[in-house]
Amino acid sequence: MDKLFGIAQNTDFRRRDMAAGGQGAPLVPAFHQALFQHSTIHRVILNLGGIANVSMLPAGDEQNVYGFDTGPANILMDAWCHRYTGQPYDENGNWAAYGQPIRSLLDRLQANEYFSKEPPKSTGREDFNLEWLDEQILDWRNDLEYDELEDTPENIQATLMKLTTRAIKKAIYRSPLDTGEVYVCGGGAYNSHLLEQLRWRLRKHNWSVQSTSALGLAPTWVEATAFAWLAMRFDQQLSGNLPAVTGAKGYRILGTITAV
């Protein structure tokens, strides 16, 4: 692609953070801080891609920004939906809304050790995938608490959505931020049922939930803009990581240039 357009490419943003002992992810909290942090209002930027991650932006406090992956988001819901409906995703969460979460299966999924880890932490499809889900469902079906009447595809989809929203709620309620604004980006921002579930779960502490469109940037543009920002930081020889997020030993200039 670089030869076709005659443009050098800035890529490989994760390697230098990993060389400094970090996990190389998530990298977007530094961008979220630069673009979205507010001087008087606590904000959480929630990215709902394949994996869900949060950026915690304390009001007017640049030193204590942090973030991490909370667990699976679309990666499991999309795969399950495609298997049983043939559709690439559950539009508006309508299929999940038709089902009822299965408590015993949810408890089994939440027993994954990732959910009990303390940040900094990151995860991906190597941990959460359809094969992992199938193994959990098989074990659940052999459990004494198994109820065959609960075992429907739409109920399992509803359970996967609750797995996502519970982990997000836990991350926000256990943060030092007492109340504020949650802005959602990524493809999951268009899952209206998921956002309603988040609003219901977070209303206790008066957290509002809306998409990043309210801040002037469409949900599906945020990640691409973040990596353009990282490229700009590399060009200006400025750091692009947050050690508190990735676990790196210090700030690093991220990326490499691939010549034409």
List the helices and strands and how they pair.
Elements: H1 2-5, E1 9-11, H2 15-19, H3 28-36, E2 43-48, E3 51-57, E4 66-72, H4 74-85, H5 94-98, H6 103-110, H7 130-141, H8 153-173, E5 181-185, H9 192-202, E6 208-211, H10 222-235, H11 243-246, E7 256-258
Protein name: Anhydro-N-acetylmuramic acid kinase
InterPro entries: Anhydro_N_Ac-Mur_kinase (IPR005338), ATPase_NBD (IPR043129)
GO molecular function: ATP binding; phosphotransferase activity, alcohol group as acceptor
Characterize the structure shown.
This protein has 260 residues and is α/β, with parallel strands linked by helices. It has one domain: ATPase, nucleotide binding domain (Nucleotidyltransferase, domain 5, 2-Layer Sandwich). Helices cover 40% and strands 13% of the residues. It has 11 helices and 7 strands. The protein has helices spanning 2-5, 15-19, 28-36, 74-85, 94-98, 103-110, 130-141, 153-173, 192-202, 222-235, 243-246; strands at 9-11, 43-48, 51-57, 66-72, 181-185, 208-211, 256-258. Strands 4-3-2-5-6 form a 5-stranded mixed beta sheet, sandwiched between helices. A two-stranded antiparallel ribbon has the order 1-7. Helix 4 (74-85) packs antiparallel against helix 8 (153-173), helix 6 (103-110) crosses helix 7 and helix 6 crosses helix 8. The chain is globular. It starts with a helix and ends with a strand.
